[in-house]
Design brief:
This protein has about 725 residues and is an alpha+beta fold. The protein is built from 18 helices and 31 strands.
């Protein structure tokens, strides 16, 4: 039985609110949590297969050119070497998210330093690694640009031009015209990219660290010229992805080709350095912000133009202006993202692409405008919230930005009124606070899930959906528990296997709303089947604590099932409602910092985040996602930066010793306020994405707090001590 629903209009039934179990929204533990913290959850590289070989990728040592020859004779004589593979089906770049097909770029054409050009396979990792280092590859090198500043960018064919921004700037009572920059970022997931491939002659089974199996199976089959029925992917546990594992990566294809050629299982695990050098980066940005306002703080014009970079042939451009387009009102608007072609590894989705670096700069520029207007920055934001999309005129599905700003300000203890820098000092530390809005566009994807209510009144949920640390196992258990009226512990959630129905994949913060809608649909079908057995309609049936109640009469679910399990496939599909409303999550950040007058060191002392993202499915996992995003805000603001060699474009700081993510001592106490709402246009379960919202703008709040503390207005992220110290006014 299949229940298929395309969402062409808002779903105002709010079915989860009409259920009786009381599970949904509760701060329940992750069911797989004990396995993860005890080290018994098996990740991609940790499987032990009989007769397994080890593979190590060999990276190019030139920026651009052709592989002319691979001299493998000497390497093949080294101990334990099974093969040197340079099959042209190996991929040179990771696939972009939702590609659904293999990248077309072949390994014999080098486009960036470190690009995989071969795989060495041996009996042990040590032997494979030593041989990979000894392998001689001869190239024909070509000149290539590696610095975006030296390249004329391509124009944006989708640029927004409305009204006359130049005129609005000239006529404004207060105007800001500033340029900000952000460094590139690495996803920096805890688990490196890894794959174990096993070929039995007809079926290829790959255990890999991947986010979107529904797309990845198509990409891998395409790369290998196999039918999808000949491929099985397994990713039950993924140690973080942050966009870097959306598409298949070089390790997956290389391990698969080696296994098919050698007839033995092959494991390929990228080193941390290889992950940094070859997997998706977030592009650096250079952003021009223009804001024009009348004396009362009404914004009349907004300009947001950015330059980002990517490899030749890639269509992805960091969508820096994505939320600027609708966040604030302003009749006159100019927005564009221009793309510079450089030979660095592929730029793609990394931790809230677009807003993660576009929102902090917009919010910092808005603080500059508030300073010129002598106006409270919170009040300035509240005065400029549009009623509809400023360009398209579409209505908002739901928008709790005002509530987030107001509730966040109250909880933080925000002092209303104009801000005055350098007003508070504790010894050698300047103390200040800052605010920023948050926004992250909301999307949903097609999703399928099978729910089976077994004869003993326990349930099984199955989908190839992944849990990358976000809490998918927990929320799907809660949705099924709520809809079927059974204890959460009675629900077994099985994920990460392409033999299961295809989910939406984990990415773009669309996972929970999409797969949750599919599970809800499947449970609707089960409720209808139960109601039919009882001779009534589903809406009259109350399911709670394993009992079905009808007209005051209780009957155990197991008796209603009577040995005949009920299995329903829920199939959710996005529909016309997506184009009829503006759908986004919103929030507000408040930060307090201390800045050392003598060293420029910045310490974040406390942060408050208030977030509105539709229905809260699990208060604990939602809060954890918000805290994680706020931690990334600290990284964006103060520490994180990919540094590239100016000659050959390789990543200089290619490990976690030199690429500085925030550590425990960098992170203060964080307060999270969940501003719950229902958005019937967002999904069938009235939920929106939360996975990335928490990092969309918070770095701007920290930048604004630094200025409020010590008077240093810094327009280059990250705001490292040397930059802060140079910008602190004398005295």
């Amino acid at each position: 039985m299949t229940i298929h629903r395309r969402q062409d209009e808002p779903d105002a039934r709010n079915l989860l609110d009409t259920m009786a179990q009381g599970t949904i929204g509760q701060a329940l533990d992750r069911p797989e949590g004990p396995l993860k913290v005890s080290g018994t959850a098996t990740y991609a590289a940790e499987y032990r297969l009989d007769d397994m070989l080890e593979g190590v990728l060999v990276g190019a040592t030139i920026v651009k050119g052709k592989v002319e020859a691979i001299d493998d004779a000497a390497v093949l004589k080294m101990p334990g070497i099974a093969a040197v593979i340079s099959d042209r089906r190996m991929i040179a770049r990771a696939a972009q998210g939702t590609a659904g097909e293999a990248p077309t770029h072949t390994i014999d054409t080098v486009e960036y330093w470190g690009q995989p050009v071969a795989l060495v396979v041996a009996d042990t990792l040590e032997n494979a690694r030593d041989a990979a280092k000894a392998l001689v590859v001869r190239y024909r090198s070509e000149a290539a640009a590696v610095d975006p500043a030296t390249v004329v960018p391509e124009g944006d064919a989708d640029a927004t031009q409305q009204g006359d921004l130049a005129k609005a700037m000239d006529e404004a009572d207060a105007a800001v015209d500033v340029t900000y920059s952000t460094k590139g970022h690495a996803s920096a997931a805890m688990e490196p990219h890894a794959a174990i491939a096993d070929w039995d002659g007809t079926l290829l089974t790959v255990r890999a660290s991947l986010q979107m199996l529904n797309y990845n199976i198509s990409e891998l089959a395409d790369a290998l010229s196999l039918r999808e029925s000949q491929v099985r992917l397994l990713s039950p546990y993924v140690g973080g992805g942050f966009g870097s594992k959306l598409g298949i990566s070089q390790d997956v294809v290389a391990a698969s080709l080696a296994a098919m050629q050698l007839g033995r299982p092959v494991r390929v695990v990228m080193s941390r350095q290889q992950v940094f050098q070859t997997i998706m980066r977030r592009s650096e940005t250079r952003q021009r912000l223009r804001l024009a306002a009348t004396a009362d703080g009404t914004i009349s014009g907004i300009g947001h133009e950015a330059i980002v970079s990517n490899l030749p042939g890639e269509t992805f451009a960091e969508p820096v202006t994505q939320s600027t387009a609708f966040l604030y009102a302003g009749k006159h608007r100019t927005m564009a993202v221009n793309l510079a072609r450089v030979h660095r590894m592929t730029a793609g989705s990394a931790r809230a692409p677009g807003e993660a670096v576009g929102m902090p700069t917009l919010e910092a520029a808005l603080d500059e405008l508030a300073d010129k207007l002598a106006m409270d920055p919170v009040e300035l934001r509240l005065r400029n919230l549009p009623r509809t999309h400023p360009v398209s005129g579409l209505p908002f599905g739901s928008r709790k930005l005002a509530e987030c700003l107001e509730q966040g300000a109250e909880a933080f203890g925000w002092e209303k009124g104009p801000r005055k820098p350098r007003s508070r000092r504790e010894g050698e530390w300047w103390i200040g606070s800052g605010v920023a809005s948050a926004a992250r566009v909301h999307n949903v994807g097609e999703a399928k899930a099978r729910v089976t209510l077994r004869s003993d009144a326990t349930a099984v949920v199955e989908s190839d959906m992944t849990d990358i640390g976000t809490g998918t196992y927990a929320i799907l258990r809660q949705i099924a528990s709520e809809m079927l009226g059974i204890d959460p512990a009675s629900v077994d959630v099985r994920l990460g296997d392409t033999r299961f129905p295809r989910g939406p994949g984990s990415g773009g913060s669309w996972g929970a709303a999409s797969i949750g809608s599919a599970v809800s649909l499947a449970c609707e079908g089960i409720r209808e089947a139960l109601a039919k057995r009882l001779g009534t309609r589903a809406e009259k049936l109350v399911l709670k604590d394993g009992y079905a109640t009808l007209s005051g009469k209780e009957q155990a679910l197991a008796e209603v099932i009577d040995g005949n399990a009920i299995s329903v496939l829920g199939h959710f599909e996005p529909g016309d409602v997506e184009g009829a409303f503006v759908s986004s999550g919103y929030g507000a950040f408040f930060a307090e910092v201390a800045v050392n007058h003598w060293t420029g060191e910045t310490r974040v002392r406390r942060m408050t985040g208030a977030f509105g993202f539709g229905r809260v499915l699990n208060a604990k996992t939602a809060r954890s996602q918000c805290i994680g995003g706020m931690v990334w805000c600290i990284g964006t603001a103060l520490t994180e930066a990919l540094e590239f060699d100016p000659v050959d474009g390789h990543v200089v700081n290619c490990d976690l010793a030199e690429y500085h993510v925030p550590v425990h001592r960098d992170v203060p106490h964080m307060d999270v306020i969940l501003v719950e709402e229902r958005d019937p246009a967002a999904s069938l379960i009235q939920a929106k994405g939360i996975g990335e919202l928490g990092m969309c703008g918070g770095a701007g709040a920290i930048a604004n707090a630094i200025y409020n503390a010590c008077g240093a207005r810094i327009r280059d992220f990250p705001m490292t001590p040397d930059r802060v110290l140079a910008a602190i006014p004398p005295g």
